[in-house]
């Protein structure tokens, strides 16, 4: 009987030891999980988190651009490598708060790095220009007076949703999704800064939060072409399509000359690169530095379309906007079309020659430099 009781006791202890071993294994696994660097969690959320670095001074800025991007990723890893403390097991709210504190620090660093880069580029390439701000320099800056925000409109870089944000901030609407595209762009809902007198302009430039969002130049060009020429658009087909077809298409049909429909990407690029264009430039494909004049206007935050949601919401918090106002995520222009991506951009650029790609890169060269985008093709110089 005593021997049987001893065996039962021994067996129960083994069970307890097994349970304790499993519990210890789970705890150690949890420590390892929570010790994982925050940068890995962010990478799992998707692309667009890269961090710009101030370029090193060199004689050739073009060659520097390729190395800058690699340096950006190393800088990002350095800033984001602090792990969540493994000793404690914070609840979900604490982990989320820690994540946002890390994210805020990262974006604050990005903000200053981009502003410093802009100052360096302006000092290097635009030092001889007059620093006087005129009405022309602020023609695309939209004004929201309640929360004191100035936003420079860059078409094909999220401008429709950012103008919806300004409408919400001004209290002219309550739900972003109910603000249609025509209301956003009709010119009556929001004022531009050039509608004020010079004293009012300078006061707002000195005291308001100034925001600019940019996009990789070649992707922005393809996005603009798809929007205006691949889809029904009587205004652009008539104003731009007809003269483009007339000048650059051999043996154009009477129907094409009449409607301006079906402009090819190659014809569009020929128009864009022509110093004697048959019709003028349009803001949808003009250089950002010519639209928003960052060497005249000291932007508080220069965001990137590639990380639009996170950086937009950071800029809103920077301006003191209410926490319930966030960047809308819907697409109301040609919603069935796929978003212009790197892959789609490469497909369009395969339709033009290397010489044309190089000339277009030269055309947008200052945007590539100022906003620290790498060369889109390796065969460019």
- Unreliable residue stretches: 1-59, 66-90
Helical fraction equals 40-55%
What percent of residues are in strands?
5-15%
Strand order of the largest sheet: 3-1-2-4-5
Describe this structure in words.
It is a single chain. This protein has 381 residues and is mostly helical. It has two domains: 94 residues, no CATH class; 248 residues. The protein contains 16 helices and five strands. The chain has a five-stranded mixed sheet with strand order 3-1-2-4-5, with helices on both faces. A hairpin with a 4-residue loop joins strand 1 and strand 2. Helix 8 packs across helix 14 and helix 11 crosses helix 15. It is globular. The N terminus is likely disordered.
Secondary structure layout plus pairing:
Layout lengths: L1 H33 L3 H8 L15 H20 L11 H34 L15 E4 L4 E4 L6 H11 L11 H5 L5 E2 L5 H10 L1 E6 L2 H13 L4 H15 L5 H6 L5 H9 L14 H5 L8 E4 L3 H11 L23 H8 L4 H10 L1 H6 L11
Parallel strand pairs: 2-4, 4-5
Antiparallel strand pairs: 1-2, 1-3
Structure described in brief:
The protein has 381 residues and is mainly α.
Keywords:
single chain, 381 residues, mainly alpha, 5 strands, 54% helix, 5% strand, globular
């Amino acid at each position: 009987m005593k021997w049987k009781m001893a065996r039962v006791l021994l067996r129960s202890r083994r069970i307890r030891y097994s349970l304790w071993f499993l519990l210890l294994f789970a705890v150690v696994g949890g420590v390892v999980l929570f010790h994982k660097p925050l940068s890995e969690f962010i990478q799992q959320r998707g692309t667009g988190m890269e961090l710009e670095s101030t370029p090193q001074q060199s004689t050739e800025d073009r060659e520097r651009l390729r190395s800058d991007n690699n340096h950006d990723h190393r800088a990002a890893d350095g800033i984001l490598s602090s792990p969540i403390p493994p000793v404690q097991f914070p609840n979900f709210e604490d982990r989320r708060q820690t994540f946002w504190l890390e994210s805020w620090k990262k974006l604050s660093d990005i903000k200053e790095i981009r502003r410093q880069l802009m100052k360096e580029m302006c000092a290097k390439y635009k030092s001889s220009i007059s620093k006087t701000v005129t009405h022309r320099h602020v023609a695309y800056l939209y004004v929201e007076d309640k929360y004191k925000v100035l936003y420079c409109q860059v078409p094909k870089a999220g401008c429709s949703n950012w103008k919806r944000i300004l409408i919400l901030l001004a209290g002219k609407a309550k739900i972003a999704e109910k603000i249609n595209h025509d209301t956003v762009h009709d010119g009556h809902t929001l004022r531009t800064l050039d509608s004020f007198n010079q004293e009012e302009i300078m006061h707002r430039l000195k005291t308001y939060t100034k925001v600019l969002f940019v996009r990789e130049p070649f992707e922005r060009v393809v996005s603009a072409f798809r929007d205006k020429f691949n889809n029904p658009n009587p205004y652009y087909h008539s104003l731009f399509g007809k003269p483009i077809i007339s000048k650059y298409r051999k043996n154009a049909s009477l129907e094409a000359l009449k409607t301006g429909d079906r402009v090819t990407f190659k014809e569009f690029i020929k128009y864009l690169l022509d110093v004697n264009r048959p019709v003028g430039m349009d803001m949808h494909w003009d250089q950002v530095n010519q639209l928003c004049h960052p060497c005249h206007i000291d932007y508080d935050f220069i965001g990137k379309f590639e990380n639009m949601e996170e950086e937009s919401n950071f800029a809103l918090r920077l301006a003191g906007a209410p926490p319930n106002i966030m960047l809308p995520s819907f697409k109301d222009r040609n919603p069935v079309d796929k978003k212009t991506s790197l892959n789609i951009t490469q497909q369009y650029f395969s339709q033009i020659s290397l010489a044309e790609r190089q000339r277009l890169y030269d055309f947008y060269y200052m945007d590539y430099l100022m906003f620290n985008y790498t060369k889109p093709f390796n065969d460019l110089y």
